[in-house]
Input
Amino acid sequence: MAGITVFESVAAMREAVAGWHAAGEKVALVPTMGALHEGHIALVTEAQRHAQRVIVSIFVNPTQFAPHEDFKKYPRTFDDDCAKLVAAKADAVFFPPVEAMYPAGFATRVLLLGPAAVGLEDRFRPTHFEGVATICCKLFTQSRADYAVFGEKDYQQLKVVTRMAADLDLGITIVPLATLREDDGLAMSSRNRYLSPEHRALAPVLHRVMQELAAKLRNRDDLFKAVADAQNAIITAGFELDYLEARHAETLAPVTSLADGPIRLLLAARIGATRLIDNIAV
Output
């Protein structure tokens, strides 16, 4: 791809990283599944604040999709993604084929507890984080990067990956980046392109309701009533609500009062065929 180095093998990536490290340069990894938008480019910019070299992985990971989910439909826009990365001045793309990441006989998974087993995304997508953690563990060890940058939009994922990297002594620092939003508050996501015009107009309700809920909790309103009212507001607006909960911001354990904080509000809801997730701090 003109303008950016593309690694299709682990060996090629490791050779380049070894050269960068030998020159005293730090390396940051931005793991993605492609279909890049401004939120992803912000991750690249954040990575550049921490390291002299930035690799962006583009790999639609089959093991984090359940059988009923959209693996085959997930948008694949490699040429457009690379053009955006050239403009962002990323150094390289890691673009491995599936058979290189999961060769014949592959039989290892990362077993997760802690923030991966708290009844949020894991309740609705029970195999999802196992797939995420396995691919991230591979990417971290394959790239030998010093940093990996993740957005806070996938907040439970961020906590899962941070815990795994620490627990397994992977030698990589996980850098979080605040959620990027559209002007109307909708969290940027590759799945937003699936929204019909009508549903796109409704989608910002989610962020607005969470902001109102956070304000009530900061005002010391009754936690259980405030959360229940917010849940009802989302359902009344026409969404199918998977969850809207107040959780401890680090462990993701349920909280019973503001004294249990710091608190994070986490949400997942469906509008039409599109599932949206979001979260904010209280």
User: Anything to note?
Assistant: The chain has a mean pLDDT of 95. The two ends are 44 Å apart (CA to CA).
